[in-house]
Amino acid sequence: MAQMNILVTGGAGFIASHIVDKYISLGHRIIVVDHNLKNKSYLNSKAQYIESDIDDKKIEDIFRDNKIDVINHHAAQISVEDAEKFPEENAKTNILGTLHLLEMARKYKIKKFIFSSSAALYGNVKQLPVTENTLTNPNSQYGISKLCAEKYVLLYNQLYDLDITIFRYANAYGPRQKGGVIALCTQNILQNKPLAVRGDGETTRDFVFVEDIAEVNALVLTKQTQSKIFNVSTNTKTSINNFITFLSDITKITPQIIKTQLIAGEIINSRLDNTLIFKELQWKPKTSFKEGLQKTIVAFEKEYNHKELGE
Ligand SMILES: NC(=O)c1ccc[n+]([C@@H]2O[C@H](COP(=O)([O-])OP(=O)(O)OC[C@H]3O[C@@H](n4cnc5c(N)ncnc54)[C@H](O)[C@@H]3O)[C@@H](O)[C@H]2O)c1
């Protein structure tokens, strides 16, 4: 594969730090823009890091000074709860930030724009699994901001012939994750703290392992597709109660459960069809839920051991 210069936004965060590792392993040159570079252990020593907001005008310097081939855009305000509390902040990053990057793509004639979207834009639907053609009907500020950003990405494809791919991720999980039910419960169980479960624990999610997500971000660099939007999922449902049973079996710890209320904008059941992405990109998730969970637990245990040793 020819070496490409790739700008990865949010590359110091959970999903995109794995994508950075994958791209580096394939020999690409990576520049990361992220406004938070505190998690040093997630940074790849072979990538270049620029600490900045994505909507800061100064990021134009990157495009002036480097011949960027691909923008892989993962920076976002990702919390449904924070988006409810600070909707304007959410829109600023998720909508205006994306627009700023699209403008850079247009001005500097970028070959490809990869955008991380979300299952959140389907909202609560009657029929599962959702396909890419299911009507989008977000029930959260976060979902609306992702849908709006998607529309801009599609528009830049139509108006300026920018090659684009939009990935609608189901619920990602894996090492380095900070929020979300899997990371929070895994961290708590390892510290013998109680686990907070929203509602009755029977809400279901389609959990997709982060390394499988990194894989598809690599595949799309070289493969042409007819479609522009793809679900990235396992098309299986796991209830939160099921997940906790798995977690308890693997760690051999019986946790204390604290029930809390469902939050505004919470999706009750989520499962995404992944037929299209298999057909066009020949991608399907390689990691079973149990295997992914085991890897996640091992990674979190390692983080704690390092912390305890003061490393
Ligand atoms: N985690 C999931 O389950 C999931 C599901 C669907 C979609 N996504 C999408 O995938 C992407 C990555 O999510 P993640 O879970 O890795 O989140 P994350 O919070 O771990 O990573 C996001 C990164 O973006 C950075 N960032 C946020 N706002 C920024 C800004 N204005 N300027 C520069 N950097 C900024 C953060 O510092 C962080 O490092 C997001 O776009 C998210 O919407 C995630």
Please report the first level of CATH classification, the CATH class of the domain at 5-171 and 209-235 and 265-286: Alpha Beta
Alpha-carbon distance between the two ends = 37 Å
Please name the CATH topology of the domain at 5-171 and 209-235 and 265-286: Rossmann fold
What oligomeric assembly is this protein in? single chain
Beta-strand residue fraction: 15-25%
Order of helices and strands: EHEEHEHHEHEEHEEEHEEHEHH
Count every beta strand, where a strand is a DSSP E run of 2 or more residues: 13
Bound molecules: nicotinamide-adenine-dinucleotide
Helix amount: 40-55%
* Alpha-carbon Rg, integer: 19 Å
**Backbone shape:** globular
How many strands, what sense, and barrel or not for the largest sheet?
Answer: 7 strands, parallel
The CATH architecture name of the domain at 5-171 and 209-235 and 265-286 reads: 3-Layer(aba) Sandwich
Largest beta sheet: what is the strand line-up?
3-2-1-4-5-6-11
Structural class: alpha/beta
Task: Tell me the name of the CATH homologous superfamily of the domain at 5-171 and 209-235 and 265-286.
Answer: NAD(P)-binding Rossmann-like Domain
| Overall residue-averaged pLDDT value | 95
The low-confidence runs, each spanning 5 or more residues with pLDDT under 50, are: none
Question: Helix count, per DSSP?
Answer: 10
